[in-house]
Amino acid sequence: MKTGLLVAAALVAAFLLVSGDERADPRTPPALPGEPPPFLGTAVVGGGGLTAAIDAYGDVVDLRVSGPGGRGLIDNPAERQAAGTVPADTGVVPWVSRRGGATRPLWTADSVDQRYRRGTNVVVTTARFGQARVRVVYAASRSRLACLVEADGVAGVEPRASRPPAERRLRCDDGVARATIRDAERSDRGWLQRAQPLGSAAPPWADELYERSLLVLHALTDRRSGAIVAGARDGWAYVWPRDAAAAALAFAAAGYRGEARRGVRFLLGLDLGAAARFYGDGEPVPGRGPQGDAGGWVAVAAQAVGLSPPPRLPWRNLPDYQEGEPGDYLGNTIAAGGAKTGLHRSESSRRLVRRLGDPGSGLDSAAAWAVKPFGIRPLYPAARATMLRLARRGGRFGITPGENWPGIDPWSAPTAWTAWSLAALGERRQALHLLADLRRAATPAGTLPERVDFGTGVPTSTTPLVWSHAFAILALRELWPGRTGLEGCQRRGDCLLGGLGGDDAGAAGHALAAVELPAAQGDDLVADDAGEADLRERPPLAADRDHRLAGGDDGEVAGVADAGGDDVAAVRVGVVGGGAGDDPDHLAACLGRRSRGGLHHAASAAADDGDAGFRQPATDPFSELPGLRALLDPAAADHSHLALAPHSSPRISPISSSAPALCSGSLRLPHFGLCTQEGQPDSQGHSAISRSASPSRRSNSS
């Protein structure tokens, strides 16, 4: 009896600990208008050794030694953040002494602003108290966190650590701190210099997002083991195979072959059938079983860097990237190369839905994976129609994971991976619109949250998220591949995934890739219908946050190879529409300003996304292959003869085609006109609202 009472008391105490009961811990301090709550990280500091997360107010809210997946030194559980019960002395908090007044933290300031020093993971948080100003600078070495404080108009600033282990790693306002910050700046900029740049036509905003995304991956990749964690936060400082594999693809695309190979080798050493997540030392994290896409993502990453893929793993009746109940899901099917992928169709047209055999389960953004990185060509038309429909229905800050997702808050990773695949299919305008959404969702420092509030864009979950930044890199390189991304890879003969612009590695493990499809004619596989061709059906861009989207001159767009740049049934991409002078939206003025013409709300679109385009009727790419047609027909019989070959034994049948070669750079796209750089205001333009940080029901740590 006593044991039972003790257990009950412990459970009640644990509930009160995170429930916000007045008798338990105090409430999380309120956020400033337009900012996330205190103690939710918004920036990451480090270079693969000691790793720290900094919130919008200059507080150190997560600190890990021995790499980004190492032991945590700060007690800041995600459950407390979700419940709003984080104590005010959590982590390392700078306290400001006002002349003649009490000490105050930065979340009581009149305003805060956070930026990185360009080309580094050195973060600077500036707070204003009336005319007084406080700046806190953080950087990390392999084993030390350094901070410098600059104060103007206040008596002093004292960073206070709540726990001795964190305090012992902190050096502030001395020679060691200054040297650490200088060394970190030099090291980060030197590392960034190794990156393959975007093409010369890339506007400044694209270069900035590209650099910040690379530096996020740099910070969250263990410099010794290659382990790539999802984020610098309790519950996210683990390795998810699909997240880390996407990061390895991004590293490879950007020219960091060593980082890519180390990341993949770490993944190949995991027991992928043991768990969904892994510690930085490779041990499984208890609590969640394997997920059905892990093997496929690791395989495509391995092939991209020239390593042998892992053995094929089961994928049916397992959870997918949404981390819910087991099932037969689209993402798992695509990643595993399941022969019934085409049966994931919607009720009324050839679009891809989440559950196998359940047309009512809603469109799934994982349809994009059929294009990039897995290259299942027969599904390109259905994937394209699915992505365009989801993109058109998205909000100002991106899209949700799927049509039947229970919430409305946009997620940055599906937004970015959809942009990547649409760009690969030649849907450049729509891909740019999604990147505009993504940039609106970014913090002022340029980091991408896992998700943001639908109405305000304020981060509500882990920031930055490796997965989102990895797909941002891949999308940007697809749009502006640069000389080394396409022409250079032809000279070197190592077009990995076509420089991440083709399908060789991704398609190699799929038997469907070996089918010789007839060469598409004109706009066959990318034709718009009347409703989809007009991007003005998207909700209007928000003036209140478009200041961060002011773009440079998009210039004459460099030659971009289509998604079918390999020798497997190459597809000729037809570009619909004329030049910038014919488009009243002018790409929403290069992603930065409201269009001149009136925008129509998505609800006004009634056309079926999968129908023929307005240029010419779309032909049926399956007309000569009735066996493949069954893949898109739920009433069809199970064609077991299309069972897949193992990933390790690709059999790709080359065919001849007059389409532009992957590395030729011969496919020209229309000139989208010029933009002027209008500059950016000093503060973030979020609406005035305070939010709690709450992990979604199916987010990484839930």
Explained architecture:
There is one protein chain. This protein is an alpha+beta fold. Among the domains are: 29-190, no CATH class; 336-642, no CATH class. The chain has 20 helices and 11 strands. The chain has helices spanning 2-19, 78-83, 164-168, 175-192, 204-219, 241-253, 257-268, 294-304, 330-336, 380-392, 412-424, 428-441, 466-479, 482-485, 487-492, 497-500, 504-507, 530-533, 586-591, 626-629, and strands at 41-45, 51-55, 60-64, 92-97, 103-105, 111-116, 123-129, 132-140, 145-152, 156-161, 170-172. The strands form 3 sheets. The chain has a 5-stranded mixed beta sheet. A hairpin with a 5-residue loop joins β4 (92-97) and β5. α6 packs antiparallel against α7 (257-268), α10 (380-392) crosses α11 and α11 (412-424) packs antiparallel against α12. The longest helix has 18 residues, at 2-19. The chain is globular and about 70 Å long. It starts with a helix and ends in a 73-residue tail after the last helix.
Quaternary organisation of the protein chains? single chain
Shape: globular
Summed over residues and divided by their number, the pLDDT gives a mean of 74
| Class derived from helix and strand content | alpha+beta
**Cα-to-Cα separation, first versus last residue:** 33 Å
**Beta-strand residue fraction:** 5-15%
Main sheet overview: 5 strands, mixed
Residue share in helix: 25-40%
Low-confidence stretches: 1-23, 484-699
Number of strands: 11
Strands of the largest sheet, in order across it? 6-7-8-9-11
**For the CA atoms, what is the radius of gyration?**
25 Å
Helix segment tally: 20
